[in-house]
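Hello again,

I reread your note about wanting to compare the complex against the isolated chains. To keep things tidy I'm splitting this into two emails, and this first one only covers the full assembly. Below are the input lines as submitted, including protein chains and any nucleic acid or small-molecule components. They are followed by the predicted structure of everything together. The single-chain runs will come separately.
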Amino acid sequence: MATKARENHREDVAGRANVEDTPELLAYYDELERLEAGALWTVANKIEPWQPKSSSVPVLWRYEDLRAHVLRSVELVSPEKAGRRVIYLNNPGRREHAAAVGWLYSGLQVMHPGEVASAHAHSASALRFIMEGEGAYTIVDGHKMTLGANDFVLTPNGTWHEHGVSSDGTPCIWQDGLDIPLVNTLEANFYVVHPDLQQSVGYPVDDMTHTWGNPGLRPAGADWSKGYSPLLKYEWAPTYEALQRYAKATDGSPYDGVLMNYVNPVTGGPVMQTIGASMQMLRPGESTRAHRHTGSFIYQVAKGRGHSIIDGKRFDWKERDIFCVPSWAWHEHVNASASEDACLFTFNDLPVMHALGLYREEAFGDNGGRQPLVS
Amino acid sequence: MATKARENHREDVAGRANVEDTPELLAYYDELERLEAGALWTVANKIEPWQPKSSSVPVLWRYEDLRAHVLRSVELVSPEKAGRRVIYLNNPGRREHAAAVGWLYSGLQVMHPGEVASAHAHSASALRFIMEGEGAYTIVDGHKMTLGANDFVLTPNGTWHEHGVSSDGTPCIWQDGLDIPLVNTLEANFYVVHPDLQQSVGYPVDDMTHTWGNPGLRPAGADWSKGYSPLLKYEWAPTYEALQRYAKATDGSPYDGVLMNYVNPVTGGPVMQTIGASMQMLRPGESTRAHRHTGSFIYQVAKGRGHSIIDGKRFDWKERDIFCVPSWAWHEHVNASASEDACLFTFNDLPVMHALGLYREEAFGDNGGRQPLVS
Amino acid sequence: MATKARENHREDVAGRANVEDTPELLAYYDELERLEAGALWTVANKIEPWQPKSSSVPVLWRYEDLRAHVLRSVELVSPEKAGRRVIYLNNPGRREHAAAVGWLYSGLQVMHPGEVASAHAHSASALRFIMEGEGAYTIVDGHKMTLGANDFVLTPNGTWHEHGVSSDGTPCIWQDGLDIPLVNTLEANFYVVHPDLQQSVGYPVDDMTHTWGNPGLRPAGADWSKGYSPLLKYEWAPTYEALQRYAKATDGSPYDGVLMNYVNPVTGGPVMQTIGASMQMLRPGESTRAHRHTGSFIYQVAKGRGHSIIDGKRFDWKERDIFCVPSWAWHEHVNASASEDACLFTFNDLPVMHALGLYREEAFGDNGGRQPLVS
Amino acid sequence: MATKARENHREDVAGRANVEDTPELLAYYDELERLEAGALWTVANKIEPWQPKSSSVPVLWRYEDLRAHVLRSVELVSPEKAGRRVIYLNNPGRREHAAAVGWLYSGLQVMHPGEVASAHAHSASALRFIMEGEGAYTIVDGHKMTLGANDFVLTPNGTWHEHGVSSDGTPCIWQDGLDIPLVNTLEANFYVVHPDLQQSVGYPVDDMTHTWGNPGLRPAGADWSKGYSPLLKYEWAPTYEALQRYAKATDGSPYDGVLMNYVNPVTGGPVMQTIGASMQMLRPGESTRAHRHTGSFIYQVAKGRGHSIIDGKRFDWKERDIFCVPSWAWHEHVNASASEDACLFTFNDLPVMHALGLYREEAFGDNGGRQPLVS
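Full-complex prediction:
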């Protein structure tokens, strides 16, 4: 009986599988297949790799390339039909998952003054990072937040949320970041449209910022035990000031310069259970050393210009550009200016890595910590 | 200019995307693709489903079908070449991931008296559940544990581990359970072969059981802060006794009868960060109500016989059979005996669901909580 | 045989002890005493009171009374001989413990420009609240912090600490708060003089403020697992701003107006394991309702004037006055101004109450929540 | 003007107070006293001792001395009048607090078959350790537990609890342990008599033992977030077995032999928030080294005979004797038998020391770790 060709991942290393196909074994594999089973030694080396090999590739999306297309979507589709006018970032290695890198989704959304998106909730966790425009706002479970450039807002797992731009504003563009691919692949995503399509605002505007955004102070009696930060909005001005203050007290990280994590003020932990976010400042002339770690990262250039080297390839960036670093990819950053600092916003799946015990990190040891460029 | 056909997932529901393809839009989509981007509204309804739809299907693997094949592997391949002689369970919907269900791997391994597998470590977390034979043992980071039928042992993320059967034992078969598919897809798996291929045993045999397996008592001064249970082995005799004792004190769960979780005695939490495990007892004649929840489950029948109904399909089982319940699949269990209890061992990814805030549960409300059978 | 008179706390209530002394019992009590024992029923009602009855009394210390005495200490004793020139607050009910209320110590310390106190460490936890003067500083484990009026600084359990006033400053007065009486009575106090009598400053001035005092942001990689807040200094300006911001988002507490707790930014919990601290704002014209709770409190008036009613007695206060509220004493606060807010700083032993499961609270139900004055 | 004599604790050590009384200062002290204040330097050295000095003294209470007196109380007072017939242990240094050592109370209670104590609740936490008799039981919040010799049961802070002996039992004697002195001195004690004087039993007998007393297993869905262990009873048989098992896996502590803590199975932490408990086994011939630590301890000899040396004084003990070790007192233990093990039950305030950051420990370094006897 003819048996079909099969995968067989052999390695000639002690402790690894190295079994040659024989007619008898191939027949045996056929029998196993009929029982919804297989022989581990044919796939063991594949499913137990020596180290992670990301299916994502490093990509830099230049804002000057994308911006016109984002704006054009306003002419092409109505918000009613499109739901949201978003151009999503599609990593060549992750197209089947519509992911920008790893299990993270990202897109650029545009909204015109007076427009309002319908309210919904989902198990995916989301954030927005404002790129340009005036008058943007987000409502999360009845809490309305006003937003300006480089502000960052959460719309966590399970919350009713909606976005809009006030009628006296200007066209606004922001970056969305979500864990939709992760939650889908974990087979745990639910989606609900708000029964009224819009929420009512039930609190003073920016109340959560006023309540939870005070350094070293917490409202007495204000309990919070949800899995995400009650400080739903992180504004740019205090963030940039924090970086400058922290820079006075630290030498910084050799890999990241002056790096601060956005945190849940109640726990000191990440802003959401599946997505972390940070802002880092590369000081004038700063050039970091390379390292790599598990976890997928999306960067947005909040300020300045420079370049990053990712797995030996150079990516030049300036304000508003977006790029990604796949899991276990070497990366280092360079501020191109000798007089101005540069700031990179990132969001990532580090909370997943930490919660599941999967974080690993390694420094690039050779060449003074700098990667040679790959041609 | 000709544009290629594209996916476009439309829904005629307020708040959902419903944009018709036009030549202009198709050309626009081509331009976006060249920028490694896409229009969200073409895929939004796909990536934001109303509820999870598992790619796994319910499967029951009968031990009487598999056992002969497992034993035959001993004749077909040597341990040196195969690494381990394991027949893995291959869910028809998850073949590309070699998964038994969701992101969980499972296989049946056989080992003969005097055989020893080489020691290794990986980022995946693993467990074994002993199905038959005498003399099996596992060594984890120098702690040696002897194992008998229905014993359950951990070989967690990052630990050196190896299995063997003592030379005065009998051929042993056990079920392996791992999160290899999950750790691979999270791009965080590392694999290391022990430099000496074998560990030395550094502690009295079963020392962790003697140290941590005492109800309500904990060794003074014995700190433990690792992400997994120091009680690496969970023996059958005290487990079965625990179920009988707990049965005296509880009415049980309507969905699961008398269900106990194996826990980390230091925290009361799950045995490992990514895999939970439980043993449940269906009392004589017990027939549970259906429910569904996020998280993927693999069951092994530790004792007795009966059937389960999964998404409307009946699966009859007896001792040593294995079956799976995919995420968000309805399921209910029936003990076929009016006089004997039945016990089901399960392992699952509930710790992932809980750590990431993704656990959801729903009771089957109609028909007294019992699913109608689907023909 | 003559027996001595003994205490015997009888109550004629079911479930309470009510045993009459008899010659036979009195002889029995004598025998027990010789065995270092006693009969519980003679003291049961004493040691099991129906509710707490504080041995502290409410006291208000007027700054205008104390200030001259504090300043005079500079002429009377040298810092070398006195160690520190401090006038401590001595509650009439707690003189044997040198406590201001309950198990809390407080004192007013004065220091002249150029003076430096010697460095030491102790198991007691301490804080300072600056009342007047320029140029004060504190050094904690090598971290130097500059201090102005209404700033609040921690010198926690086990840290090396010292205070000084820079030579270009002015005479400074501050309030010290400590749990010395508690740690003494728990028989756990240790005291060490620094081997060099002074510490060296090992970090940039105010580095901990720059590092940890940023709302919603935390330095990446800066671990902190000690039992106290790394944000050792809480400055007045951001504190007052926080109260004003929070006031926009809250109706406030009926008992406390706009009340915020100083917290450990890493955990969201109290600043030290034994002492909590808060700042509260009574809005113009605000008059709170009375409540009582376990835990002892010391208040300092940071801003404004008004009065508090404590167990039916009125205490009028203005800026810099200090008063105490004993455990389980009814208390309510009134801002005397219709146009200005008033701010009260407090420190307390609430972390002890919470850690030991002893916090209880009760609202004053009668008379619209306002206590009748006791003449 | 005549001034009264005052305490003044001078030390001639740099960094310590050393101010001589002068007429001017004495007059100044009088003025301060009128303001409810004092000069710190007169008391600083007293309230900041170099190390703890316990007001408790080591005491051994011989059961052969106390037993007859305990039994005699049955003739002398009725349960109705006495509430409970208890002989409490009265440390000579702690008589004003009715404490056995530090802030811990202990007493020996007797109850005859058919007797029932009235149900009550209090903020103090309590435990009982059964010394002799058959048929004793305790009910805690409706959970009834049967008790035999060396069993240990909790009646935590805030729970309704009552004790009794079944009518077919024998006279029972047990040791009570409580933190009444601590909760009183923290001014946080509340006492309530049950409105019906007795509780109804609402669960199967020993249900909490059946539910929570299983090694490595926890009932699915059984939440517990209270501050004390749901495993209210700790039986002797599994405790002694645990010590024997653990002894196979450990060399033991040089200070305590084979020491296990009773724990809350949900958290791995202490059984109650204010009282910890342990059982330790001194192996045949074992003689431990001396150490000292903060925290007060009461020991009961559960098995065997031997002696302890406490602050240089020898205390010989045998089964049922009770002794105490004050805070920071040196102590070491000796098993007098070369063939039998000895077991010591202890309860203590270590959870208080740990929760408040006050635990300190020191080994006795001289003389091979053995204290010289003080004559």
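For quick reference: The mean pLDDT of chain A is 96.

B.
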